[in-house]
Structure formats: structure tokens, C-alpha cells
Amino acid sequence: MQKPKIFHKGYGRPPKEKSEKRKLHRITINCTESEFEYISNLADDHNISKSNLCIRLIMNKKIPTIFKRDVADLNSQLRRIGGNINQISRSLNQLNKGGIMTIFKRKKLENDLENTIQEYRDILKLIMSFKA
User: How many CB atoms within 10 Å of residue 88?
Assistant: First the structure.
């Protein structure tokens, strides 16, 4: 007899498969202080738990290549770009209210906008390289 499919109500996460159920078994390892520190630092650098790191290493699975310091650097770059975009839009609004848009100001704003867009593209390329 075939098991009926379980349908969820259309919102939230669908029910987990049997292979995705919670982990029931515990393995304890003993290590020296330096080994523990190494594992802790490696897990912290990769922003995953020590348990997840050990499982990934044992199972020869890929460890995430994005580091906390990279995330912090990306956040600061994105904030700076957001600030640049705000300055450009503020300048455009002021010029629009005054009705004065000189060719020089227009070229400068276009150049600033192009530079900001290029910085944004560079950050996107960096983010995409982490996924590979």
C-alpha cells in the first residue's frame, strides 16, 4: 500500500523528509587545548558550528569559503555605496528644485553614478565568487 503524500497548507516550510530529520546521535572526541583552539578558530572563521565543521571535514564536504571579516568588509563597502547613492540623489533633488542643471554638474553626477555602479558590480562579483 502506498503512503499518502503529505501536503502543507501553502505557507511556511514543507514537511522535512526522513533524511532531514533532527540529528539523534552524538559523538564525543577528546583533543588537546591547541587542537580545540584550532577547531574553534576555524569554525569561527567560517561562521559555522564546531560540530558542523567536524562533520563537513569527516564527510569530505565543502566548507563555506566566506569569512566573517569578508562579510564585515562587504557590509562597510555596501554602506559606503549607499551613502554615495544618497548624496547623488540629494544633489539631483536640489538641482531639480532650483531648476538649474549645468552641464558641468550633470557630468559630475553622471560620473559619480557610474563609479558607484562599478563599485556595486565589483562587490557583486566578489559575492558570487564566494558561492563558487
Answer: 17
**Residue 97: inside a domain:** yes
- Quickly state the pLDDT bin for 132 (edges 50, 70, 90): very low
Q: Which residue has the cell 550633470?
A: 106
Answer yes or no: is 95 within a domain.
Answer: yes
Same-domain status, 52 and 75: no
Q: What is the pTM of this model?
A: 0.41
Count other C-beta atoms under 10 Å from residue 96's C-beta.
10
User: Which residues form the domain of 33?
Assistant: 27-64
How many folded domains does the chain comprise? 2
Coil, strand or helix: which one is 122?
helix
User: Does residue 106 lie in a domain region?
Assistant: yes
Q: Give pLDDT tens digits for 49-58.
A: 899 888 888 8
DSSP character string of 71-92: HHHHHHHHHHHHHHHHHHHHHH
